[in-house]
User: Fold these one by one.
Assistant:
Number 1:
Amino acid sequence: MDLKVEKVNLKEILPLRELFLKENNFQVRYDACHRRGWTDSYLITIDGADAGYGSVKGKDDLSLRDTIFEFYLTPKNRKYSNTAFEMLINASGVKYIECQSNEHLLSSMLFEFSNSASSDVVLFEDDQFAFLNIPGATFRKKTTGDKSFEHKSEPDGDYVIEADGEIVATGGFLLHYNMPFADLYMEVREDQRQKGYGSLMIQELRKACFDAGRVPAARCNITNKASKATLLKGGLRITGYMLTGEIKTPYL
């Protein structure tokens, strides 16, 4: 067997990446890194035939290429996963692995090749229809004359919830993820929190997302209990976690 790992242009791995996206039918958090030129691509060949790819980005500094964040082998070649991954580490000179726990192949490599795994982000996918209602609260698209509030964590979204003539929450969804997924975000005015507006916003944003031909998804910090509860109540469910591990010394 002649297994090779070579650095290539992004376009050379795109057919394999389409297989990766089709097999992993969920929102890929770092999907946009490829289009923005923040990655290095590596083609994996076995006996001269394309067998898979690896993608590398910066963990904390976008100018660096120190982290493997995508790894794919076609099903018939997965028996060579450990060998191919070790060669990818050597070819790219990375120090870290970062992946989603719902991406099983790279997750298994993380536990095999890193000292430990840690997580700071929870990932959510669409789940059940919610039937939330707050009397007097109206969900609608934002208009030019709307007076919003000072936002501390999220952008001022395209949708609002209005109550008693005032905007109490805003939200929207981002479209730079892999099709057909979109990332929900929202913020509730500080003096109006813990009244159910956040979950109502998530519920209605999900509907708007589907109307736009997208599938809703979301994420939050693992320590943010309020956001986690809001997303769950609004009809999402936990689908995974972002995992990070430092590669063991023998492989460096």
Note: Residues 197-211 form the longest helix (15 residues).
Number 2:
Amino acid sequence: MLNFSYLSPTKLIFGKDTENQVGEEIKLYSKKILLHYGGGSIKKSGLYSRIVESLKEAKIDFIELSGVQPNPRLSLVKEGIKACRENHVDFILAVGGGSVIDSAKAIAIGTLYDGDVWDFYTGKALPVKTLPVGVVLTIPAAGSEASKSSVITNEDGWYKRSLNIELIKPKFAIMNPELTFTLPPYQTACGVADIMAHIIERYFTTTAHVDLTDRLCEGALKAVIENAPLLFENTNNYDARAEIMWASTLAHNDLLSTGRIGDFASHQVEHEMSGIYDVAHGAGLAVVLPAWMKYTYSRDVTRFVKFAVRVWNVENYFDSPERTALEGIQRMTDFFKQIGLPTTLGELSILDDRLEEMASKCTNGGTKTVGNCTKLNKEDVLQVLKLAL
């Protein structure tokens, strides 16, 4: 186990009707905020009205910026920065899923920065201050409600890049599983894949003696695997929704990263895919993860056997570790299919004509590698993408 420092400062407010507390929580930080959200779904569901009522009761003034898309755009972030500056906003409330939260984080750091906010996503600068951000979570998936991550897509070249820094963790996250009852099945499934990918990226490590976090990862995965199918049998299953929503947070608040170094190559490959083709992140991960596993399993077959046996209940074929590992990969792939996700690029209408471009973007023109368990160069990434066809 490696040395580590762990901080999880986000206040998590979990359970039924908790969105009604949002005004009282914000009152600790601000009297004038930006209310940031996606489309009209929060208005159709009545959530918008409840939040506005809570803000008014707490005497909090607000301006609004809607229109966040999946794979949130840099152009909207810049619009939000301009609005915050002009209206002297000092707090941002994100109501939605990971895209809205990531956009809010970007606006929060950009408002207090004299340069181009994109500098933070290309590594040209690091943010040193931010507006505080609060969250009302409606889509359990990205884990952005308590993570140090923000991912933004720049329409100029369709580059999708991430920022990872403790500074941007939200001050609070309100998490009511009831708010997820109306999610479409495909969006629900994409969220499940995203959650699982966050755990799997951490599980595959070369760090030795991490038994505790291995077991935490395995337990979280098994809970998701057992509860996810229940969401499609009864969309109003509160208990199953609660398990998935809590898993979303724990998968990406770095508790499962303590003392170990994860991989995250699959995430970086998928970012290029969704940056160019604008596919749902979870759907892209359901395609990339099995391909990455097939390409890399032989380099640490012992860990892939552990994954197969402990997570997917595969019989351990001691005379053929490869057979055990491959069966685990297949069961994961079958699970993604079971919940309605694609597992090939073809199912996403992605052909082979831009694989080279994706591999090049992922590795900065071939000048860097991605991943930690197995460091993938440009040719490796290309081969992973070919396995996903």
Note: Strands lie at 11-14, 32-37, 61-65, 92-96, 133-137, 149-154, 159-164, 172-175.
Number 3:
Amino acid sequence: MGDAVLVTGGSGFVAGWCIVELLKNGHTVRASVRDPRRAVSVRDAVSRVVDPGDRLRFVTADLLSDENWDEAVAGCQYVLHVASPLTATRDEEQVIRPAVDGVRRVLRACRDAGVRRVVYTSSCGAVYYGHPPRNGPFDESDWTNLGTGKMSAYVKSKALAERAAWNFIQDEGDGLELTAVNPTGIFGPALSADATSSLGLIKRLLDGIPACPDLWFCVADVRDVADLHLRAMTAPASGQRYIANASDPVSMLTIARELRERLGQAASRVPTRKMPDLVVRLIGRFNAQMNDLVPLLGQQRNASAAKAERELGWQGRPWQDAVVASAQSLIDLDLVAH
């Protein structure tokens, strides 16, 4: 029997696959959920891939409350802190406060309980924003510069929360180990209809939005992101950041064409034209989700996963497989408009 591991935000897209990988590798898993009624659906989703038996249990805990975090981490050797708000909003505090306060709350409980290591799910949102364009890729030594340029509340929350995590370890960690995983755009198959938050882009394409905004993404498959969490969890060295990325920047239009080519009739509504930037800006005045995209128009940021590949033997699958798996899972879950 492997070590006991807590996965926070157990009902989420990335967390679900982390639970799957932990169970496959023999660990006992405790998953935190904000609503205890979600436990049944999470167990059912995980069971589609691996039999959890009696090795998956749940605890109710919220990033905005101290309640139950001591219970959540008790007896765990490792914690994968995956939970983080992913909301399009003009109210930055609605996203930033749970992310920053939540990571401190979880780390404090881990320290007090004698947890060995926390693997924190950060993002390349904490790596490559607020910098002038560059030819080469960003790496783990880079940090988002919040003092320059417009960026979404989500990007700000990831940058501020990861900084808060490292500051806590330095000032109050008392021997607690921390490693951060910084994925680029996360795609791949959804385990359930309740855990598709990162796949909104693919759903909008399949549902037939009129055209593709001039957006570019680096791609990491959610299954590979989960695999990197486990590698970082047991790696000899802690105190590291590891970027998860498997592609150069890919345009939304290129993703759309890949879906049409690979999925045929199932992707018949996917657009084949680019949306003018002016249209995106106009819609963004009235739509918070579209407004978050405006600062990203035409921006191509690359990130190197060489460190994860070199130090942890990690390898990401091709971006084409990740985006097609995203779409196929949405179709199979009957989440695409008819």
Note: Residues 37 and 76 are 23 Å apart (CA to CA).
Number 4:
Amino acid sequence: MESEVKKLKLGEKIRDLRLKRGNTLRQVAEMTGLSIPLLSQVENNAVSPPVATLLKIARALEVGISYFFREEESKEKAVVVRKHERKKTFRPMHTQNGNSGYTYEALAYTKNGKHMEPFLVEFEPKKRDQLTFLKHRGEEFVFLFRGRLAFHYDQEEIILEPGDSLYFESEVPHGFRSLQGRKAQAVVVVFPEE
């Protein structure tokens, strides 16, 4: 998994784009609301950012999130990403046992100029007190196809079963946790509001 993250070169792409645009870490921190140390860790590949963080960075640097997953520019109107071509990354959660909170694979990173970002997400089981809440502008759609998933949103917990779908505004702090000690898998589509 770690080698997959390194292959993506997320940190290098972010740093190169930031420098190409003439932005300092401080300027990007102010635009995103993220700390300078966190941005530095992301740029140095010490931390793999969650989708919400990548969305903030992409917005600040005026690119789509798929910019960080593709290897070259494409002008195709329809693209296929084969199973073996998917780009897997992970979001480390600061838990005592060091388990990551979830992994996600970009499913349409080769398409430029799109309005939605689809991901295959695998959620790790965790306890309610281990939840990390994220928020970002836009909307999300989740289709759960394996496991049970607790969705925490605006002081509410909603349990999703296989086959259930969920659509929500992602500006409200939200978090997920897989239940029953097993991983859950879902297709998640993020619409990052411009």
Note: Residues 52 and 136 are 6 Å apart (CA to CA).
